[in-house]
Amino acid sequence: MLGARSPQAKQTSAPLGESLAELADFAVLLVSGALLTPQLFGDLPMAGAGKDARLMQRLIGGS
């Protein structure tokens, strides 16, 4: 809408619009990853990692 009225305003605001679009894309990826990660990796057993796995299980209260 702004670009239709003033080509100069369109040229001036284009870099800001592109940056905001990139930021919105990153935010969507970040939130999606945060929501999906526990579902994807929550069921993996911690066995096989040795001493670190046993320590981690004690710290988080696992058996």
Q: What is the strand content?
A: under 5%
Radius of gyration: 23 Å
- How does the helix and strand content classify structurally? mainly alpha
Helix-strand sequence: HHH
Q: What's the overall geometry? A: rod-shaped
Unreliable runs: none
Q: Give me the number of helical elements.
A: 3
Provide the number of structural domains: 1
Number of distinct beta strands: 0
User: Major beta sheet, specifics?
Assistant: none
Q: Taking all residues together, what is the mean pLDDT?
A: 77
Explain this structure.
There is one protein chain. By secondary structure, the chain is an all-alpha fold. It has three helices and no strands. It has one domain. It is rod-shaped and about 65 Å long.
Tags for this model:
63 residues; mainly alpha; 0% strand
Question: In a nutshell, what does this entry contain?
Answer:
By secondary structure, this protein is an all-alpha fold. Helix content is 78%, strand content 0%. The mean pLDDT is 77.
Write the layout of secondary structure elements.
Blueprint: H1 2-5, H2 7-41, H3 51-60
